[in-house]
Amino acid sequence: MSRVNISKQHPDVYQQVVALSKSAEEAAAAAGLDKKLIELVKIRVSQLNGCAFCCRLHTRDAVSAGETADRLAVLPAWWESQYFSEQEQDALGLAEEVTRLSVPERTDWDNGSLNPEQVSAVSWLAVVMNSWNRVAIRSGYRVAP
Fold first, then answer.
1. What is the mean pLDDT of each run of 10 residues along the chain (145 residues)?
2. How many CB atoms lie within 10 A of CB 133?
3. Which NCBIfam families does the entry mention (predicted)?
């Protein structure tokens, strides 16, 4: 029994993650972050964690929000492309920093295009997305065509 759907075993805990996720989304919107950027952060964190379920889910959400196939295609190597604004690059770099927890802390993502509220909001998005990735991966959420 290596895989147990933890969201079904402890639905009350799962609902707390749902509430945390909603709060992080609201904070990101209140901080003025674009819906497409919010989804890019979620996708990038999910790529780093190898969570196919969340990659698919948030790619679909990004497309619904108006994201382009070209930008989604280069997201795994965002720093090599010219597709992303300074703010998007900062947010993606910060999300990677939160996901990887580099010690000592990296700050090469910080070019000043995110204000403190936005840094906090992106950090919370990454923290929550890391949690969701672990729920999906640990539970063995299926990803079939």
1. 85 95 97 98 97 97 98 97 96 94 72 89 93 91 85
2. 23
3. ahpD_dom
Q: What pLDDT, on a 0 to 100 scale, did the predictor assign at position 1? A: 56
- In CATH terms, the fold of domain 16-139 is AhpD-like (1.20.1290)
Cβ-based neighbours of 89, under 8 Å, separated by 6 or more = 78, 79, 109, 111, 113
Any idea which residue has 């990887």 for tokens? 100
**Token pair for 126:** 């990454």
* Residue 52 CB partners (closer than 8 Å, separation 6+): 143
Q: From residue 117, give the alpha-carbon distance in Å to each of 21, 25, 43, 50, 106.
A: 17, 13, 21, 28, 19
- What's the token pair of residue 122? 């992106």
Write the burial class of residue 38 (CB in 10 Å: 0-12 exposed, 13-18 middle, 19+ buried). Answer: buried
Q: Which is it for the CA torsion 75, 81, 82, 87, positive or negative?
A: positive
